[in-house]
């Protein structure tokens, strides 16, 4: 039986790891600080639209606390800007069987990249031979140590999974993906296995471009026009670079058979996304450089303009450095800062 090691048990990793544990699958959550202490002390509190349960979990703070085996699957679910440090911590860990070391995690173990953006796969391939991209549709929130709020029902979320790069999968990969789909759909998660997962991840990247606008204005104003400008610019950049993106129609059809976002008792009807959560926790960093900043990188590489995403990425960095909280600026001020609205 596979054991799933969730590296980064925050909102996404905590939701996945908690659900896998509930389904009776061997699972280890890797966390740190107060969150790790809470998991060890009391377990993981999972709150969703229909239930509020505390799940006893196995939690560790570092790879030295585990003995890896060939049946382990590593699931990277940090933020993208934290991926490099996590990968270098795990890549050279020994993999054991029958009292001997077979090799390292990077040589032998599959690694799933369950995080936003499209950069983590390239980063991971520097260290791990078998990398599987995951396009994450899972509305979860982690603000309190030891607790994750999942706003989806009846399934917890949808995770498209595929070998990266596309076309390199062999029999071992197909076997692993079939096992993973069987296991994770018990969680319950919906797990499509596209031939190429990256067009799905680029479409999700487009959706995530609005994260920083929600985080900065805290939902206090109407930032839809600003997001639309960033998205239109991104679509032009991706088209100019010749990067395939899953169509809106295909995405909508898949979402219709996925899950429904519903309020969680005792929580506001609207809870922020991953960038909002980073500012709300005062983490000191955000992943915007790998979301809006990814569009900037591609634009720079192909000599294309991306002024809106360039400016909002700079605002995100400044907000994280200064400890800015969601709602400290208005949508109107953001529009002026981005040159998308006239100053009064």
TrEMBL record:
The keyword tRNA-binding does not apply. Its EC number is 1.1.1.169. Keywords: NADP, Oxidoreductase. It holds the Pfam family ApbA_C. GO terms for molecular function: 2-dehydropantoate 2-reductase activity; NADP binding. Coiled coil: none annotated. The keyword Cell division does not apply. Residues 320-344 are annotated as: Disordered. It is an enzyme of class 1 (oxidoreductase). Residues 5-163 form the Ketopantoate reductase N-terminal domain. Residues 220-318 form the Ketopantoate reductase C-terminal domain. GO terms for cellular component: cytoplasm. It comes from the Bacteria. Belongs to the ketopantoate reductase family. This is 2-dehydropantoate 2-reductase. It comes from Microlunatus parietis.
